[in-house]
Amino acid sequence: MKVNEGLDSIYGLHAVAAALAAGELAELWVVPERQGESRVRALVEQAQSGDLPVIETRSGDLARKVGSDKHQGVGGLLHPLPMLDLPTLLAGLEGKAPALFLILDGVLDPHNLGACLRSAEGAGVTAVLLPKDNACPVNATVRKVAAGSASRLPVIPVTNLARTLGLLQEHGFWVVGMAGEGDKSLYALDLRGPMVMIMGGEEKGLRRLTRAHCDFLAHIPMEGRGGSLNVSVATGICLFEAYRQRHGVGCGVGREQMPGKGEA
After folding, report:
1. Which one, out of 107, 133, 142, 168, has a CA that is 20 to 30 A from the CA of 49?
2. Do strands 127-131 and 155-158 pair parallel, antiparallel, or not at all (unpaired)?
């Protein structure tokens, strides 16, 4: 198992609490004058009970460490995220329930990426794949928005997305790309089998080469004149439709059935 390079910091009561609960913190930083506050004191006690170093620091110094003066008296140093490689993950899926992968192709905003990771964990996604050359890195902002999901959910960087999609298809996965002009409705697809769902970036959507490797292009039916949805909102809708189907709520009624890979 590899780890991504560098260490990041995080700040704020909610973000630090989530990171602490997820085991993401290497050390807790706290402003002494704020330790009398119940929420800060609770974080300190939780860190001490887990033998996590608690380092007192002045408010100004903490602001410089985390890059913000809105730290609410707490911050922390994050462990680097563990990174699995795709072949290892695929080998571990044999004999298990059909996997669901999320690929974010060109999502560059850290708040969108963090929200997508949080939805992915909630919807039971097996892993999230991010192109190395066309994605926001999983930095401190992403991890703060993800509220611990970035540590609990495998996030796999891939160098060549087209080759990765081919590999997944060889392993029996169907690839669904979400695009406004997709010819199929999301709700007309059977999403219960081994599945890869691809969401495009904020401005350009799915790249041409990515589209070419999709088995299906689908859209989210909608009314109004608002245009496309924010990518994190669209991701949540798509993933929880897959979750709904996979957990037996109205599955298979009026849907186009996907044959197993290799079947006519």
Report:
1. 142
2. parallel
20: its two tokens: 């602490």
Per the CB < 8 A criterion, the answer to whether 200 and 207 are in contact is: yes
Give the contacts of 37 (CB within 8 A, at least 6 positions apart).
Answer: 73
Q: Which residues pair with 4 in a beta bridge?
A: none
Question: What letter represents residue 71's amino acid?
Answer: H
Widest CA span in the chain: 69
Residue 148 backbone class (left: φ over 0; alpha: ψ -120 to 50; beta: rest): left
Secondary structure (3-state) at 238: helix
Q: Is 226 exposed, middle or buried (0-12, 13-18, 19+ CB in 10 A)?
A: exposed
pLDDT tens for the chain, residues 1 to 264 = 333 433 588 899 988 998 898 888 999 999 999 999 999 999 999 999 999 999 999 999 999 999 889 999 999 999 888 767 899 999 999 888 899 999 999 999 999 999 999 999 999 999 999 998 878 988 888 988 988 888 889 999 999 999 999 999 999 999 999 998 889 999 999 999 999 999 998 878 899 899 999 999 999 998 876 667 899 999 999 999 999 999 876 544 445 556 666 554
CB 188 within 8 A of CB 250: no
The dihedral over CA atoms of 144, 195, 208, 203, expressed in degrees to the nearest 10, equals -30
Q: Which of 256, 249, 181 is nearest to 220 (CA)?
A: 181
Instruction: Give all strands (DSSP E) within the chain, no chain letters.
Output: 2-3, 8-11, 25-30, 54-56, 74-78, 82-83, 100-105, 127-131, 155-158, 174-178, 184-185, 195-200, 216-219
Amino acid at 46: Q
Query: In b/e form, how buried is each residue of 66-94, taking b as 16+ CB within 10 angstroms?
Result: beeeebbbbbbbbbebeeeebeebbeeee
**Single pTM value for the model:** 0.82
